[in-house]
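Let's sit down with a protein and look at its sequence and fold side by side. Go ahead whenever you are ready, and we will take it from there.
>
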Amino acid sequence: MARLYANENFPLPVVEGLRQFGHDVITIQETGKAEQRTSDDDVLQFTMADDRAVLTLNRKHFIRLHQEQPGHAGIIVCIVDPDFAGQAARIHAAVETAADLQGQLIRVNRPSM
């Protein structure tokens, strides 16, 4: 299972769903870094040091960081999705498909209607 770090504003119900799938997920709130205006670069550095992939809704900035710092532990960018259980399942499936998250940028979108 994957080691993941949920960035600020990432939905807690999705985190809980991922934990039910067996993933080791911590949140920015659990690390005491919430509401401190932690930069995206600092988030990425923290996850690299802790060997965790970032879970984020901040697609634009983390896609840029992926291009600038390809040695990260993984970045999973998501679109806001009110179907929390479905989003957790899609993230789980994407993580399970990837052999290794190191240096990977994974995009998780809502399904087309």
Summary: The mean pLDDT is 93.
